[in-house]
Design a protein that fits this description.
The complex is a heterodimer of chains A (196) and B (382).
Chain A: H1 7-15, E1 21-25, H2 31-39, E2 43-48, H3 51-59, E3 64-66, H4 69-72, E4 81-87, H5 96-106, E5 107-115, H6 120-129, H7 153-162, E6 166-173, E7 178-179, H8 183-186, E8 189-195
Parallel strand pairs in A: 1-2, 1-4, 2-3, 4-5
Antiparallel strand pairs in A: 5-8, 6-7, 6-8
Chain B: H1 2-5, E1 14-18, E2 22-23, E3 29-30, E4 33-40, E5 50-54, E6 80-81, E7 86-87, E8 92-96, E9 111-112, E10 117-118, H2 128-141, E11 149-153, H3 155-166, E12 173-177, H4 185-200, H5 216-230, H6 233-239, H7 258-271, H8 276-288, H9 297-301, E13 307-313, H10 321-334, E14 338-343, H11 351-354, H12 356-375
Parallel strand pairs in B: 5-8, 5-11, 6-7, 11-12, 12-13, 13-14
Antiparallel strand pairs in B: 1-4, 2-3, 4-8, 9-10
The chains are: A alpha/beta (196), B alpha/beta (382).
Chain lengths: 196, 382
């Protein structure tokens, strides 16, 4: 049953404590939250901008708030949640720095997953073909991408060290398994557990 | 879904009278108080499946089904019935006409036992809190300790909010649709135009018109203003455009445009079923409603264990999205378990009566979640 879920979901579920409170920013149709609710017995809450995705969350019996991430965090009191999750959504928010800072304030720990722009196939597409890369983790064309920010695994690590954000754990993901060798080159996705 | 088409059939309004006097927020006492109500479905063995639907300004207890001899069903017919969002196989649905109303509950048109004449303006000022107090008596009368859900759109949502405030221990969940924790000056302003139209009608006579000619013109104008605020610019454009009526006569200032005809028709049909004084009393109750009472809304919400479903409509400019977001914001701060959904509708405020499909989806699943929480063996204090 477990293997039905994608690798990033399974890793995230492994990071979240049992009975923890979780806020998923950009929760989509709620697949991850449903997993955390069932498997981790977590108290989950999502924020999602897409109408249809919100309806799907409600159909899953999830607690979801319709709205965007950039304006979604300001209201919460400090340490309202054990975890905030930004899985494949950080690169789509307008103000990354504010969202990161607020997330670290509102939750004890933050879990972040993003597509690695420095993945070697992306590099090759720019270098050899002179084209904006399209990869499994960055599946969009330049004209229809929802992504506003493009970052690599090294970018994120550097950002954390500059802003005194503690990286507690990091995972590098290929299309179906974890990677350990030259992650900034070979990983399609970076997944981080951070705290302040 | 064959089941969804099964209707409730013929339903009947019932009446409950409380002989002891109801102490109102104003300090005045009112009694005896009669409430007109309808119920659908069956109360289960442990009396835990009751859902209270609260109606809006011009609504009544007749939510669903048909009254004998009538062809028009109740005002939320498509949401209530076997297999519908408010599934009468699962829930015991209650709706009562508000205190101060004119559809069977005690209001300014009722007989004042002290004078044996209609109350008129001697009827005390009532509040949303008083309406809810009366509903609580009805729930008690029906032998119900705790509601599975209290639901309402517009003024009905205000009542649901009031339930959360004054009887949160008796409410497991609330569904708040196109409503506000307090009226904005714009909302008060439109209500005031309606009231002034009624009072400017010379038949109004300081509310003493019972048994004589009623202020129908004024009430119709009030309803016309109301209907403008219930629609959106887009929905008016789509429904009427600049279409002119076949029987227009521009030199007589009759209804030349379709939109004029529509508003006049709405006004004229409204006066057949509504009392002008009730309109005055109820709109004042809405305008004075302020759940926050100069406290931050989150303070009001703190400690509320009920689950909330909040629904807003993007084209609703009478109860704009920000008023619902304000409620959601308070839920976030207070840690209240809330789901919020903005429905993309062009129908304006009317959307809460019209966008049945989306509402049904949200309500069905929300009530399922609330109900599953119940059977999971949670402990509730009553």
């Amino acid at each position: 049953m477990k293997s039905e879920y994608p690798l990033d979901y399974r890793i995230i579920a492994g990071l979240v404590r049992t009975h923890a409170s979780v806020l998923d920013l950009g929760c989509g149709s709620g697949g991850l939250l449903q997993l955390l609710e069932r498997q981790n017995k977590a108290h989950v809450q999502g924020i999602e901008i897409n109408d249809q995705a919100v309806y799907s969350c409600v159909a899953k019996g999830l607690c979801v708030l319709h709205g965007d991430i950039d304006n979604g965090l300001v209201d919460y009191e400090n340490k309202s949640f054990d975890y905030i999750i930004l899985n494949q959504s950080l690169q789509q928010v307008r103000n990354v720095e504010a969202v990161l800072a607020q997330s670290l304030q509102v939750a004890h720990k933050v879990i972040i997953g993003f597509p690695n722009f420095a993945y070697y196939k992306a590099r090759a597409q720019i270098f050899f073909r002179g084209r904006t890369p399209v990869t499994p983790s960055l599946p969009y064309e330049w004209y229809n991408t929802p992504n506003l920010h493009f970052l690599s695994i090294y970018d994120f690590i550097a950002y954390c060290s500059r802003h005194r954000i503690r990286i507690e754990k990091m995972f590098f993901l290929g299309s179906s398994r974890r990677l350990f060798f030259l992650p900034n080159l070979f990983a399609q996705t970076g997944l981080f557990l951070i705290s302040r | 879904m064959k089941q969804a088409n099964a209707a409730l059939g013929i339903v009947e309004t019932q009446y409950a009278t409380v002989t002891e006097k109801l102490e109102l927020e104003s300090g005045e006492k009112l009694g005896p108080v009669t409430l007109a109500y309808e119920t659908y479905g069956t109360l289960n063995h442990d009396r835990s499946n009751a859902v209270l639907i609260c109606h809006a300004l011009s609504g009544d207890a007749h939510v669903a089904g048909y009254h004998a001899g009538e062809h028009k069903p109740g005002w939320w017919h498509d949401l209530v019935g076997p297999g519908r969002a408010f599934d009468t196989h699962k829930y015991f649905i209650i709706c009562s006409n508000v205190l101060g109303g004119c559809r069977g509950s005690t209001g300014p048109g009722s007989i004042n036992p002290a004078t044996s004449e209609p109350y008129g303006l001697r009827f005390p000022l009532i509040t949303i809190g008083d309406m809810v107090k009366a509903q609580q008596l009805l729930i008690q009368y029906l032998g119900i300790g705790r509601l599975r859900a209290v639901v309402g759109g517009s003024m009905g949502g205000m009542q649901a909010l009031q339930w959360l405030h004054s009887a949160s221990g008796r409410v497991e969940s609330a569904i708040l649709i196109a409503t506000a924790a307090k009226h904005s000056p714009q909302q008060i302003a439109f209500n005031e135009v309606g009231r002034q139209a009624i009072m400017a009608d010379h038949h109004w006579q300081d509310g003493n018109y019972y048994g004589e000619r009623r202020p129908l013109k004024g009430l119709a104008v009030a309803r016309m203003v109301g209907h403008i605020t219930y629609m959106s610019e887009v929905s008016m454009l789509e429904k009427f455009g600049r279409q002119q009526k076949d029987d227009k006569d521009p030199f007589k200032f009759r209804a030349d445009f379709e939109v004029e005809g529509y508003l006049q028709h709405r006004g004229d049909s409204f006066v057949k079923r509504f009392d002008a004084n009730s309109y005055l009393y109820i709109t004042k109750a809405m305008d004075f409603f302020d759940l926050t009472a100069e406290r931050p809304l989150q303070e009001v919400f703190r400690g509320i264990g009920a689950k909330l479903l909040v629904i807003g409509f993007r084209s609703d400019w009478l109860y704009p999205i920000w008023q619902l977001q304000e409620i959601v914001r308070a839920c976030k701060i207070a840690g209240v378990n809330a789901t919020y959904c903005e429905i993309d509708s062009t129908y304006g405020h009317d959307a809460f009566l019209v966008e049945i499909e989306q509402e049904a989806h949200l309500i069905t699943h929300f009530l399922k979640r609330v109900s599953s929480g119940y059977t999971a063996g949670d402990v509730y204090e009553i």
